[in-house]
Amino acid sequence: MENGHVIEIEKLVKKFPVGKGEFTALNGIDLTFGRGEFAGLIGPSGSGKTTLLNIVGSLDVPSSGKVTVLNRSVGILSAKEAARLRKENLGFIFQSYNLLAVHTVFENVELPLLLLNIRAAERIKMVMDALEWVGLTDKVKQKPPQLSGGESQRVAIARAMVKKPSLVLADEPTANLDAANSHNILKTMESLNRELKTTFLFATHDDKVISYLRRKIFLADGRVEKETIIDN
């Protein structure tokens, strides 16, 4: 982050083959994000927000243009290098939670640390810290089928945050939650953003999420339509 940017997006175009032609999902995106932002890509289904999030997360690559995440150009990373970027620096929160049903809450949150070869005593402290952040220290031995939707999403947040990543990408993280749980989840993420200076980037069309964002980027037909920044 030599220039202070966690994410730099320049002239990004992403096309997908459709039949004998192609569909342009992203069409000339230019954006930058700094450390500690709490920002969202907003737009209806098909606007390109999830495609953009996937490219930033090194789960996909640009058709043209350049996307740099933590000083690494995702378009030229090998599969191994992209996996290392995700493993060491990124956290992901999905609407479907993606928890492992046969493992306990503790084991689900511990998983990213096992990939980093962190010693056991340090792992235990980091997992318990993350569960304390989301208010679930009393659920360590339970398994996902025993949890409510709100609790499952809080476990997913703890798993994403346990290694204190530089960047968290959240794709419709409240889609399966009621209003009360949604606000609890969003307050938790907002608190972690301020406390740890982690950059959060959402893809959403949920008004509840949008109300918490300090920077709102509206996408339409693969382009940035407008931006709003809230000073607070």
Describe the structure.
The protein is an alpha/beta fold. The chain has a single domain, classed as 3-Layer(aba) Sandwich (Rossmann fold), CATH 3.40.50.300. The chain is built from 7 helices and 10 strands. It has a 6-stranded mixed β-sheet with strand order 6-7-8-3-9-10. A 4-stranded antiparallel β-sheet has the order 2-1-4-5, covered by helices on one side. Helix 3 runs parallel beside helix 5 and helix 4 crosses helix 5. It is globular, with a radius of gyration of 18 Å. It starts with a strand and ends with a strand. The model has no long low-confidence stretch (mean pLDDT 93).
Topology:
Blueprint (H helix, E strand, L loop, with lengths): L4 E14 L2 E14 L3 E5 L6 H8 L7 E6 L2 E2 L5 H11 E5 L10 H11 L4 H14 L15 H13 L5 E5 L7 H18 L2 E6 L2 H4 L4 E6 L2 E7 L3
Parallel strand pairs: 3-8, 3-9, 6-7, 7-8
Antiparallel strand pairs: 1-2, 1-4, 4-5, 9-10
Helix pairs in contact: 3-4, 3-5, 4-5, 5-6
Could you provide a short overview of the structure?
With 232 residues, this protein is α/β, with parallel strands linked by helices. It has helices at residues 49-56, 79-89, 105-115, 120-133, 149-161, 179-196, 207-210; strands at residues 5-18, 21-34, 38-42, 64-69, 72-73, 90-94, 167-171, 199-204, 215-220, 223-229. It has one domain: 3-Layer(aba) Sandwich (Rossmann fold), CATH 3.40.50.
